[in-house]
Amino acid sequence: MSSSFSPQTARDSRARQASSAPSSFVRHLVAVVVMAFLIVAAIYFLIPVVWLLIASTKTQVELQSSGIFSLPRHLELVQNIHLLFAYNSGVFARWFLNSIVYSGSVAILTCLVSAMAGYALAKFEFRGREVLFYIILASMMIPGTVATIPLFVIEQPLHLVNTYLGVILPLIASPFGVYFLRIYIRDVVPNEMLEAAKVDGAQERTIFWRIVLPVIRPAMVTLLLISFIGTWNNFFLPLVLLHNQSLYPLPVGVDVLLSLIATPAADQSMPIYQLVITASLLSILPMIIGFILFRKQIVTGLTQGSVKL
Amino acid sequence: MPVARNQSRTVSAAAFLAPFMLLFIAFLLAPLIYAFYTSLFINRFGQPIFVGFRNYVNAFQDTAFWSSVVNVIRYAVLQGVIMIALSLILALVLDTKYARWKPFFRLVYFLPYAVPGVFASIMWGFLYSKPLDPFLQAMHFDPLSASALLYSIINIATWEWAGYNMTLYAASLTGISTDLYEAAIVDGCNEFQLAWYIKLPLLRPTILMTVILSFIGSMQLFNEPFLLSALTPISQTFTPNMDIYAMAFNLTNLPYAATLAVLLGAITIFISACVMVIARIIGRRSRERGASVIPSEEALTL
Predict the structure, then answer these.
(1) CA B89 remoteness from chain centre
(2) I need a labelling partner for B268 at 20 to 30 A (CA). Which of A205, B13, B25, B239 fits?
(3) For A221-248, what is the mean pLDDT?
(4) Topology, domain B63-300
(5) How many Å apart are CA B75 and CA B149, to the nearest integer?
(6) What is the ipTM of this complex?
């Protein structure tokens, strides 16, 4: 459009801009106010995490006696980590491992199952395809917790309550994953490529593994990350479905720790505050590091998935 | 478009769909149907007895449940307005020429998305705790008191989700053609007018979507008050989901818990649908009146 400018209009607009342009003082003032606002907002979003970092390096006595953001006299982080891993014969390590098992398997299986379903919905023609797609889409509107309590009842006769599978299977059925990959496969995988493979006599299974999956790899990475984070952060589902401490993921485990704060044992025998604080730090640290490393992929997926909704 | 349509193709399609459909039916559709089915029974000495809609009749007279619904709607509206306003302001300010270090700020604002709600609640909960916070002691202000609790939870949720919504807005803004901006600047628009008259109207579909998503999420409020109840006494009927959870597991009244869950889901979907319809009517009316502030591309081309 700018190329269609005639010299005349360009000169006009420059003159208009000059007359209405604010003085350089005003412009500097606005820039300072904008930056001040952005910095204050950044402090707001960082405060809890910075506090957690500082608090995890203090002893419980110091935590309650010194100011919340004052630095400790002596770094106690390593001792706090030792305390945490010693608690209840190392159950925290178990929770950490459980979180990795739940998040890892849900992420991988969600990608695979969603890619298969997305491929079928994108590239095959069959009766009821659109209806099915809209049912899947509509199910994204249903509040997740509505189905969770009955899920507990349905899993009982299947012997899935209080098992790893009982938590993993419901989370694999991700309407968002299918929706996201269906759109991606439809737009990105060329039909000519599939046709050519068919002419060469390739089986459907081979086409899926050798052609579709490699082409949609960027979207798969995004979905892998999103569903890993989603599972790592999930609290309600494992809270309802598990009642054996050794199967808990981190959020449910740390909730157990936190609930001990109100008990009389908290002050005398156990540094509960320190355990909860250190456990929280170790639980969010891998997420924060991964998030910083993979931010681009995560953002692409979230915005592609939602903007088109 | 689809490649071929013979018998074997249909079989392959079914095979590719099967794993997802099995899981979808078993772990999403079946629980929803079962929730409704079981809400038609009561438990008497371990025996289910069919009572039709009696649980629903009881639920309509359950003042504790309805006060929790009113409470959570109040929360959803307040939190939604505050959070979306903050997210919009952040996205629009970051989109001006005055902002520097944009990638840094975008990253910092979005960071809480990676922090599980449970840990966000724990961090803020401790920051709210008087014994740990001399500043609050000096101020004689207790964020965990019954009167302040709702606002303290609003703050936690806003902290968690403002950056996520900002990221969605920022993505929509980068999708807008820069020609439109250039034309507006040539016409003498300043940065504020640019944001108010051009960017904001263009963000409307994204804003509507985030309003709906945030409302659905807010109606399920559970993690934050559940976690905070370790630090301060919170009623089990503070939110509908806490009520439902307590009904199912502390009182083991599953049919009634299912009744309340079905009602909560219905209320949530009904209000979301109303919001969408109203937004559509308002959108159409403002377009008919020609009040739309987005000038068409042609009007801007000199």
Answers:
(1) 18
(2) B25
(3) 92
(4) MetI-like fold (1.10.3720)
(5) 11
(6) 0.86
